Amino acid sequence: MERRSKSNKKFMVLSAIGILMVVDHHTFTALNLFGDYIPYNSFFMPMFVFISGYFNRVDRNTKLLPYIGKKIKNLLLPYLGLSVFVFLIEQLINFYKAGEPFSLPGWYLQYMLERIVTIGSFGSIVEPMWFVIALFSTLLVYAVFKKLLCRIWNSYVMLVLFCGMNVLVVYLAQNTDPEALSPYLVPLKVLFFLPFLEFGIIYRDHLEKKHEALPVGGKIAILALMLGINAIRTMYLPSSYDVAFDSIDDLSGFTSPYLVTPLVSSIIGILFWLTLTDLIEKPVSGSRFVNYMSCNTFWIMGLHILFFNILNCILLAIDENIVGLLYFDTEFFRESEWYYWEISPDFKLIYVVFGILGPLFIKRIWDMIYLLIRKPFAKKQPSVGDRSEA
Q1: Calpha distance 117→131 (Å, rounded)
Q2: Nearest Cα to 358, choosing from 311, 312, 288?
Q3: 99-133 burial, b if ≥16 CB within 10 A, otherwise e?
Q4: Per-position DSSP letters for 321-354, written without gaps between them
Q5: CA gyration radius, the chain
Q6: How far apart are CA 263 and CA 260, in angstroms?
């Protein structure tokens, strides 16, 4: 069974917080960790790219073909496998909700393929997986850029260039017809994410030691400054929600009149949570559960909406067969994968628990199955006598 333990405890905690935010955001913020001041969707997807940048080691010595092969193995193949698994379970859920076999229209395969190469996911129940395609593409484009320009590469100059690309993407998203933009969504998302990848590298190489060396008072001052800047920004923007941006998957959620807003919001959110994580790392980093969450963010990203629907199926069974549930909208649930029972704000916490523990349970089962399959094929280790003779 796979039991990895991350050595970089700060980024272990940061990635666990990030995936918790993803699940919480999709329940309309049951926990709302500073979400009123730094909204999740003003930074959390760029923060995952920042984390990837921190661990990115591409340089002039990197061999592109093995690098691409590794990313295909670690990102694309798991993406396809998990997406197909969720799609099959979705058909069972649809069968249960409709009470009759669910048949796919003839055009559905083409529809799914179009979604994969544009938005980046098979469908609504696996919608968050769009990020995998965007991250994979961003890593590959960055690797090619850095190999071609390795002799003149300067991270600070490239960061400025990438920030300009980010602003250009926001401009195009706000001023281009969505249908005309659709074929170019993946490359545009790459340009949007590139500065955060470079920012992660710059932080690792030039800023981390200085950041960590700050006294506690200095780190608290950074937190207060980030909160204060966001408070001032919300006062001057037409709407307080303009600091955030929804729907990066189709680049449709940029509402601020200022093109730099998504870039600034992302940097503020990343710096805030990076600093807060630095403060809370020691008491949290020893948690085996936090470590397991951090090691399996991919599974939580891909499966949490599925487990929201599994919870809704349980509620539907109770509503129809045991006792009627107040305010449970069966028709809405039958029509949408994004339904939540709004009996009380506190009940959203149950969705968060299902969205975290459900995928981790599936991952644990997968680890056990993988171990059973792999064990018979493992090479027999030579005994001490065998090794001495060799």
Answers
A1: 12
A2: 311
A3: eeeeeeeeeeeeeeeebbebbbbbbebbbbbbbbb
A4: HT-PPTT--HHHHHH-SS----S-GGGHHHHHHH
A5: 23
A6: 5
Map tokens 């029509």 to a residue. Answer: 335
Nearest to 245 by CA among 47, 40, 49: 40
pLDDT digit string, tens, across residues 163-184: 999 999 999 999 999 889 999 9
- List the structure tokens of 37: 């001041």
What is the C-alpha end-to-end distance of the chain, expressed in Å?
A: 31
Quick: pLDDT tens for 111-166.
777 888 788 887 788 899 999 999 999 999 999 999 999 899 999 999 999 999 99
For residue 245, give the DSSP letter: E
Q: Hunting for tokens 């599974």 — which residue is that? A: 299
Residue position matching structure tokens 């706000």 = 174
H-run or E-run covering 273: helix 261-285
Q: What angle do CA 130, 135, 136 make, to 5 degrees?
A: 100
Closest by CA to 265, choosing from 198, 170, 173, is 170
Output phi, psi for 5, to 5 deg: -135, 120
Q: What is the pTM of this model?
A: 0.91
Helix (H, G, I), strand (E, B), or coil: what is residue 8?
coil
Mean pLDDT within 88-95: 88
What backbone phi and psi angles, to 5 degrees, belong to 181?
-80, -25
Query: What's the CA gap between 105 and 121, in Å, rounded?
Result: 18
Task: Please tell me the distance from the alpha carbon of residue 166 to that of residue 180, in angstroms, as a whole number.
Answer: 19
C-alpha span between 119 and 108 (Å, rounded): 15
Residue 153 contacts by C-beta under 8 Å, 6 or more apart in sequence? 146
DSSP, collapsed to helix, strand or coil, labels residue 207 as helix
Q: How many CB atoms lie within 10 A of CB 311?
A: 18
Strands of the chain (E only): list them: 245-246, 253-254
Q: How far are the Cα atoms of 16, 199, 279, 344 from residue 211, in angstroms, in the given order?
A: 21, 14, 11, 41
What does the CA dihedral 147, 150, 155, 160 come to, rounded to 10 degrees?
A: -80
Cα 59 to the center of its chain, rounded Å: 25
User: What is the spatial distance between Cα 134 and Cα 185, in angstroms, rounded to a whole number?
Assistant: 9
